[in-house]
Design goal:
The complex is a heterodimer. Chain A is α+β, with helices and mostly antiparallel strands. Chain A is built from four helices and six strands, in the order H-H-H-E-E-E-E-E-E-H. In chain A, strands 1, 2, 3 and 4 form a four-stranded antiparallel sheet that branches. In chain A, strand 3 and strand 4 form a beta hairpin. The relative contact order of chain A is 0.21. Chain B folds into two domains: 123 residues, ApbE-like domains (T-fold); 121 residues, ApbE-like domains (T-fold), CATH 3.10.520.10. In chain B, helix 1 runs antiparallel to helix 4. The two termini of chain B are 30 Å apart. The chains are: A alpha+beta, B alpha+beta. At the A-B interface, helix 1, helix 3, strand 4, strand 5 and strand 6 of A face strand 1, strand 2, helix 1, helix 4 and strand 5 of B. Strand 6 of chain A pairs parallel with strand 8 of chain B, so a sheet runs across the interface.
Chain lengths: 160, 251
């Protein structure tokens, strides 16, 4: 009975998260890292709601110690519903030094006519790449379940 | 000295350029983030926030950290005309404010330890201090439609930068009855502020406001913003360009 209530709350919270996330980027994400190893009962391509029930080890705990073998590891291809996500991690001296995206949903915009309305105060422009080298990148947090899945998979390989 | 760890479900990077920095200094920052995660995660059953949401803690039992975050959340709710609200259906989820606050606090720890040139990046929200190799830090604003590309490169020092958005999803809504009308739902909103806590909470609230959000940022003194909508057009505040790196014309 207790378990049922706890899981109902967990699912509820996760659905709330999904709902909030649709309108807003929420900072802290579920740390339910579903690795593709057999311990997880859900399939690797499961949707976010399906994987929410599994309470597995947070990614964090498995990364705080320098337990990874050096090398470059490619994560599994995970379904992000809008496309697929696949990441690659680079381990040096037992620590993660880089996480790169090999694949990600890359939807092209529909070509829509631009509304002539624009507030007179603010400048409006079509985005275009600025190619100067950067030290850091700011962007919306990669919070998708697919990201966590592919990453966990790459890290489990690194643990050998 | 630079280190990346995955905490709170996202990559967190700390780089300290001061020569005196040691492993232990960086580890203290990560230990702090672990404490934050243990306290505020809504996904950890044993976190204080989860206990509060299950009604297991009376208000007088809340820790100082939680009381502080609740007070800051309430202040932000009022300052953003209710667009920022951590409560929904009787549950609280302060994650929209915790990250920025935690990065800011961690940066203060480093400053107090005497470091002047560093950055902390938690899932794309960033606090920079000082400079890198004599030039201001260069912070790219990622193209939400192509994550290998930056649409702007900022040149900043002692500032916070935060982006709210839906990078991986790229939702599109199309109204077949009014095809000539662009539905300008926004995809990404980057805010530059005096520190990452301020930048993050206002980026979160302004993103929730939709297209009006950039005008909200425009009226805030000391903040600039760059908003990208679903038709890949950007609107930016009137002094935003002063932070944009001037491209080398010979390149």
């Amino acid at each position: 009975m207790k378990k049922t209530i706890v899981s109902a709350i967990l699912i509820g919270i996760f659905m709330l998260y999904c709902f909030l996330h649709a309108a807003n980027a929420i900072a802290i994400v579920p740390t339910t890292a579903t690795t593709s190893r057999s311990s997880s009962s859900s399939t690797s391509a499961a949707t976010a709601t399906a994987t929410s029930g599994t309470t597995s080890t947070p990614v964090a705990t498995s990364t705080s110690a320098s337990t990874y073998k050096n090398g470059t590891y490619t994560g599994s291809v995970a379904d992000a519903q809008w496309g697929v996500v696949q990441v690659q991690v680079v381990i040096q001296n037992g620590e993660i030094i880089n996480v790169q995206f090999l694949q990600y949903p890359n939807e092209r915009n529909r070509s829509v006519e631009i509304n002539s309305y624009a507030d007179p105060i603010l400048v409006n422009e079509a985005i275009k790449a600025q190619s100067a080298k950067v030290d850091i990148v700011s962007g919306a947090t990669d919070t998708s379940q697919a990201f966590i899945q592919s990453l966990s998979n790459a890290l489990s390989q690194a643990q050998g | 000295m630079k280190q990346l760890q995955l905490l709170m479900g996202m990559p967190i990077t700390v780089e300290i350029l001061d020569a005196s920095a040691t492993e232990a200094d960086i580890e203290r920052v990560f230990a702090y983030f672990r404490f934050i995660d243990e306290t505020f995660s809504t996904y950890k059953e044993e976190s204080e926030i989860s206990k509060i949401n299950r009604g297991e803690l009376a208000e007088e039992e809340y820790s100082d950290a939680v009381k502080m975050i609740l007070a800051l959340s309430e202040q932000t709710r009022q300052e953003t005309h209710g667009y920022f609200d951590i409560e929904r259906d009787g549950f609280i989820d302060p994650s929209g404010i915790v990250k920025g606050w935690a990065i800011f606090q961690a940066a203060q720890m480093l400053k107090e330890a005497g470091f002047g040139n560093f950055y902390i990046d938690a899932g794309g929200d960033i606090q920079v201090a000082g400079t890198k190799n004599g030039h201001p830090w260069r912070v790219g604003i990622r193209n939400p439609f192509n994550r290998n590309e930056n649409v702007k490169v900022l040149s900043i020092t002692d500032k916070g930068v935060a982006t709210s958005g839906t990078a991986i999803r790229g939702q599109h809504i199309y109204n077949p009855y009014q095809p000539q009308r662009t539905i300008q739902d926004i995809v990404s909103l980057t805010v530059i502020g005096p520190n990452v806590y301020e930048a993050d909470r206002f980026a979160t609230a302004a993103f929730a406001m939709g297209k009006k959000g950039i005008y909200f940022i425009e009226q805030l003194a000391g903040f600039e913003g760059y908003m990208i909508d679903s038709s890949a057009r950007a609107t930016y505040t009137s002094n935003f360009e002063r932070y944009v790196l001037k491209d080398d014309k010979t390149a």
